[in-house]
Amino acid sequence: MTRVLLADDHPVYLEGLAGLLAATTAVTGIEVVGTAADGAEAVARAADLAPDVVVMDVRMPGLDGIAATRRVLEDRPGTGVVVLTMSEEDETVFAAVRAGARGYLLKGATRAEITNAIATVAAGGAVFGPAIARRVAEFLAPRPATGTDVFPELTAREREVLDLVAAGRANPQIAAALHLSPKTVRNVVSSIFTKLQVADRAEAIVRAREAGLGRASGPGGLR
Predict the structure, then answer these.
(1) pTM of whole model > 0.90?
(2) Do 208 and 165 contact (CB within 8 A), yes or no?
(3) For 126-182, how does the pLDDT look when each residue is reduced to its tens digit (9 = 90+)?
(4) CA-to-CA distance for 196 and 150, rounded, in angstroms?
(5) Residue pair 51/21 in contact by the 8 Å Cβ criterion
(6) How far is CA 203 from CA 163, 166, 199, 210, 216, in A?
(7) For the chain, where are the E strands, in sequence order?
(8) Domains and CATH numbers, the chain
(9) Which of 89, 115, 182, 197 is the most buried (most CB within 10 A)?
């Protein structure tokens, strides 16, 4: 049997999921051994019950699911954590992965997807929903070099500005981020356009993103 602890602060959803999994125990071999209504309770119950897998919501009062995941794995590194949440924001996804979660599903997942994720994580694997998996794969994929070998005709300052342009930042935002005057940023951007022989900002963004710039500097990025 795969022993599972469920953590969610919505009683109706928590009870529904527990009932759903209990009804399939004979087929899936998944046994719900306990539930928790918040992150702190999840940590405490995981220590007491020693589940194989914790199915963890993210947004819970007090200790959230990300912090709870980290605490559970500090206490019991072999525990599998499947995040089951409404949030598909990149920041939340990558925070969960960094905390040690090996599964990430949205709450619209089917019963089969949830039971498959629990079984896979219990066996040491990792499972992410299709949309989430694409983003994780893109994040982990090797990136083109972004040092001086990218656009060697540009100065270090120009590459720095281009990186922010590629991330969708407007000139005033770039000026604030780099502590430059708006006029200086305009001049640097103009110089970039000339050196790259591009007609406008859109063409510069395409060139820069193809070279790997702009992926970690934009709103919601990882810097």
Answers:
(1) no
(2) yes
(3) 988 776 777 666 666 555 554 556 788 899 899 999 999 998 899 999 999 899 999
(4) 11
(5) no
(6) 14, 10, 7, 11, 19
(7) 2-7, 30-36, 53-56, 80-85, 103-106, 127-128
(8) 2-140 (3.40.50.2300), 142-223 (1.10.10.10)
(9) 115
